[in-house]
Write a structure and sequence with these properties.
By secondary structure, this protein is an all-alpha fold. It has helices at residues 10-25, 34-44, 51-63, 67-88, 105-108, 111-131, 139-153, 158-168, 175-199, 206-233, 236-239, 245-249, 254-258, 260-277, 286-297, and strands at residues 98-99, 102-103. A two-stranded antiparallel ribbon has the order 1-2. The longest helix has 28 residues, at 206-233.
Length: 300
């Protein structure tokens, strides 16, 4: 049976849901060190797309996992994402001034506070996985979630992908090399988000886990290619980030090496591959199918 979920605009409902979880998990600004806590809340709360939590709730619906089982894990993944953005925006990395339509964390506070905020967001994510509320989830499943998130965040995932991205600045990569980089920098965390939900479902058939893994891989790469396109074609007022910065920095992106038309085509192909991976699922996976289509059409 599919787990109960909000009716109507499910994406807005789940964004609001994970926002409440994050609000409760983050230390209050009134607690010392107050400036650090304020920076953490600034970085993690507000007008985020919440792509990874949405994907987790949709995955939960597909395999019959209740939303309250996913809440802590969804917040944990979003905290890892928030920490990565804080650090990526720093002058030593991408040196960005704008994120989500407002000053980046190091501009709103200072560089040292931003580094500490990112560090603290990262460890808070693992604290949530260790002892956050997850009704019915075994200790072994929690450990598997921690392993999945740690692996996706490290040198074989997000951090490794960022290192490759920095080293490739000013160089011309092939589309295949771009995809390999994106699979680490962005795709690994998105894939892990799906697999963490699978870990919370006792007795999930291996074929279903493998199908959701294929979906997560395809959607993770699709997301980053669309992100590259938005840097070329997007409106800063809509995306909340300054458009055209990748080209100015000489960053290797899919549109830069393959062209806009090819990038659009590849993103659409990946969305179709993700949907095809769900062929063995019934209506419970419709939100995942909708999610894939929305990624290709997104404007921010």
């Amino acid at each position: 049976m599919q787990a109960p979920a909000p009716a109507g605009d499910w994406q807005s409902a789940y964004r609001e849901r994970v926002e409440v979880v994050l609000q409760r998990a983050l230390p209050p600004e009134s607690r010392e060190p107050a400036r650090l806590h304020a920076a953490m809340r600034y970085a993690a709360l507000g007008d985020g797309k919440r792509i990874r939590p949405l994907l987790m709730y949709a995955s939960a619906g597909a395999i019959g996992v209740a939303p309250d089982v996913v809440d802590a894990a969804a917040a944990a993944v979003e905290l890892i994402h928030a920490y990565s953005l804080v650090h990526d925006d720093l002058p030593a990395m991408d040196d960005d001034d704008l994120r989500r339509g407002r000053p980046t964390t190091h501009r709103a506070f200072d560089e040292a506070t931003a580094i500490l905020a990112g560090d603290a967001l990262q460890v808070l994510a693992f604290e949530l996985l260790a002892d956050g509320p997850m009704p019915g989830v075994t200790d072994a499943a929690r450990i598997e979630m921690i392993r999945l998130l740690a692996h996706a965040s490290g040198t074989q995932g997000m951090a490794g992908g960022q290192a490759i991205d920095l080293a490739a600045t000013g160089r011309r990569l092939t589309p295949q090399q771009i995809e390999s980089m994106h699979a680490l920098k962005t795709g690994a965390l998105i894939r892990a988000a799906v697999l963490m939900v699978c870990a919370a479902r006792p007795g999930l058939p291996e074929r279903d886990r493998e199908a959701l893994d294929r979906y997560g891989r395809a959607i993770g790469l699709c997301f980053q290619i669309v992100d590259d396109l938005l840097d070329v074609l997007g409106d800063t007022a809509v995306t909340g980030k300054v458009a055209g910065t990748d080209a100015l920095r000489g960053k290797p992106t899919y549109p830069a090496v393959a062209g806009v038309a090819a990038a659009r085509s590849r993103a659409a192909q990946l969305a179709e591959e993700g949907i095809a991976a769900l062929s063995g699922f019934g209506p419970g996976a419709d939100r995942l199918r909708e999610f894939a289509g929305d990624l290709v059409r997104r404007g921010r």
